[in-house]
Sequence to fold (1084 residues):
Amino acid sequence: METIADFEIQYSQFLDPAGKPSADIPDLARDTAKLVDMYRHMVQTRVFDTKAINLQRTGKLGTYASCLGHEATHVGLAAAMHKDDVLAPSYREYGAMLYRGVRMSEILLYWGGDERGSDFAGPKHDFPFCVPIATQCLHAAGAAMAFQLRGEPRCAVSVNGDGGTSEGAFYEAMNIAGARKLPVVFIVVNNKWAISVPIELQTASKTLAQKAVAAGIPGIQVDGNDAIAVRHWVERALARARKGEGPTLVEAVTYRLSDHTTADDASRYRKKDEVETARRLEPLIRLRQYLTDIGSWNEKQEQQLLQEVVANVDAEVQKYLNTPKQPIEAMFDYMYRDLPEFLEEQREHAMQYGDTNGGHHG
Amino acid sequence: MITFNLPDLGEGLPEAEIVSWHVKEGDTVKTDEPLLSVETAKAVVEVPSPYSGVIARLHAQAGDIVATGAALVDFAESGGTSTAQKKSAPVPEADEPEKADSATVVGNVPTGGGLLQENAIAGGGRRRKGGRVKATPSVRTEARRLGIDLADVPATGKNGQVTSADLARFQGTLTKARPARSSPTPGRSESLRGPRRAMAQSMTQHRNEVALCTIFDDADIHEWIAKRDFTARILRATAAGCAKAPALNGFFNAQSMSHQLESRVDIALAVDTDDGLIVPVIRHVEEMNLDQIRDEVARMKKATLDRSVAPQDMVNYTITVSNFGVLAGRYATPLMVPPTVAILGTGKLQHDVVAVMGGIEVHRRIPLSLSFDHRCITGGEACRFLAAVIDDLEKPQ
Amino acid sequence: MAEMTLIDAVTTALAWELEHDPRVVILGEDVGVNGGVFRATAGLQARFGADRVQDTPLAEGMIAGVAIGMAAQGMIPVPEIQFMGFIYPTVDQIINHAGRLRNRTRGRMSCPMVLRAPYGGGIHAPEHHSESTEALFAHMPGVRVVIPSSPARAYGLLLAAIRDPDPVIFLEPKRIYRLNKQNVEDNGKALPLDVCYTLRQGADVTVVTWGAMTFETLKAADQLAKSNISCEVIDLATISPIDYETILESVEKTGRLVIAHEAARTGGVGAEVAAIVAEKGLYDLKAPIRRVTGYDVVMPLFRREMDYMPSVAKIVDAVRESLHD
Fold:
């Protein structure tokens, strides 16, 4: 018999968990200012995330999905994107969103139960959080289709988790993107857990990157805790896409150090030592170590940075806490561009009843 | 012999041109074997044989244009099979895949409906007809039962609709108000209509529901200074009775078992006219002096005689006075109209022989019959009422 | 002015928008080279190119999701789902995203798209090709549902739907795709959405219907006219949101309402029309509201499909009953 197709999936890492180069550092990393910038964003994200959990635990935020451990993946992918590219996230990628100009107060408003959190002042064309798993992959493909039809040098990037790769929409998106060579990059954040379902139960596929093979597009697996690796490969994928060579799947392997959300208790289904082992591989340590090793970072800067980011977070939290609830009629005013007649009566009815006091805050 | 006609090759095409025959006369064919090629406006179509048999006759040649439904080929009977049955064998329900563009990938999209002519009006706002009566279906049913035209009933509902209470009040006026439109023909059974029907229905209801009790007495009007003023005196006396026994001035609701007293004394006054009984309402009699009552009665009488009484002047009264005894009858058991609870009837004025201290005299007297609904009025209340009426009537003025 | 069938009208409207609005893109299975299995998009790819009229892979959820992504980034996609029976994988995208994107982002993003699908029974089709489940979408806030019943309305309403800034599900009654022709002028004039169309004025009973059922209803009205019963026939056209003002005005005039629809009875859009009239038109009603609908069963395979559907006789009887109350 003749083998008529086979495949190969490569794995890439540039920094090992101790921050030491494990392969030739790519050119992008010579721009140490950019690396430092990425690191600053990662720390900002970490501090924000910690604060958000605290807000939830003190009744000031609704259910929240922590991104602890994902900072390199999220910031790395965003650092690779152009400003006018478009991001289609799931609901955890704060590092990417903050890097691209979404405000912390907007993220808090969203989890705090206020739609205005999705009305980004910054990246106006980025998609909002997407809860139905992997449906955003198709939106990214559609966005990419729009860019292609209009001849724009823009790309779409979707992000979904390991669980999301089991959804039909994930495959359908890769499939059409491959068939039409759409300028889109599919990022799969393999953090090993889909709520309580481990990757071993999720699929028989040895890597998630190889799911790209079925769609006829390239797939690569990278160390998701290595910000340099993530950025490097996403940059290359975007360059490919922008040139019209079609989509790529980038699997970033990391670990969900937190619970799935604040309503979840991962200790029910995960072993403590597994988490501890993973924690030693976490992304902030290694990038900080690398930057320190090459003389681009020091303790003083670290302290300064922490002060800065804490102040930023506090300011944004204040902004969020001081935002009053939307008026009642807001639930009607954005259903259609123009309020249809039949809704006017209902709108008046709702307004007539005034405020039902509910919710934590505002 | 079976004739196979050119079938509809799709989309209601009217005709096709024969490109070539795949058989000739005398050939034996089996079902589904290719028979001929035809060209339609859209494509060349292979027509398979619908039957097995021997080709007896081809009705057209290559190059001919055949109309859909026209004869194409005759099949001779193949030995033994009844051709009569075959003739009526239907085309199998699962249509064979058409080679012409059937313009569907499943089933069969029907065509040939002709040119659509329509005159569709977008939206509304064009047909509002004001003045249509509004009422719930239950009120409509009740009105139908009572033979009442809803358009005649004054509506007090919040949305402009006739309520059941409106209907009940209006119904009360009808049994006396509307002149009978036609008398029944002797020897012929005729369905009751209009006010007579309403009367039959409301009297039945009355009989079924009201606990009727009547007290009879007389008022001695010998002392009267003015000899006339009959109606006005009766009305004033009735108001006096209501003041003494308010229980008789109001409404009873049997469903809710509630009794609603009124402070206003609006008296429905039955007036007999040439056109029949009319019942105008004299309002707030409790506030009027005799002159005022007299003037109001005169006004109402005039309006009644020249038929200018407004509908709202015939409804919504709290008690009734009926001068039934104009021609004959001293006493009666008059029936009040629910939801009112009392009716005072006056009989024929008589010169009666009465016993007085020291002898016998002849005095004019008014016979009185007070009917009341014993479900909500006690005998005592009724008697108090009647005593007050008599008391007022017997005053000189 | 040209004589065209309903399907021709769809094609003509699509062509108009493709020509006049570069943002419009058609996508779906078999819509390009084949021109659509009902020929709705016949000739359009040849005329406007494979970028504007795209043959997609076979995945309905994908078709809807990609359309949403395109719409959110400034295109006007007009995806086609080949049959309503296959629309269900799109429900996730339509309900969770198309109908919500504007609301979710406070107007920052919106979803101007028209999802077209042939719907309804009566063409002797195999299983799943005869669905009428418009109520599913009618229930969802943020999504309009429009159903034309004539070539002229197919043309005008489809233009309106494509030009509407919010998502529209455009369901085409396949039974009348080719039944009649009508003179329609290809002048780019849209018909208003959100209004009913009175197809026939009358004084005795209001009959509200839509889609292919308008034909049975008009036939019933003809039959009833012979007994001097005059029906006012109203085509809902926009199934959601319903123009209840027109219906209420009609009921104010006639006092009687019969609703006829092909879809199953329970939770059908007829129930909503009945509720509205019971709420706002009770004082005008002289008889109970009646619905003539499909039964609450799976639509039978085609040998019995016409027994499932409301017929002229069933509509006539319902009208007569409402006059005898």
Observations:
- Chain C is about 35% helix and 20% strand.
- The mean pLDDT of chain C is 95.
- The two ends of chain C are 46 Å apart (CA to CA).
- The CA atoms of residues 264 and 295 of chain C lie 5 Å apart.
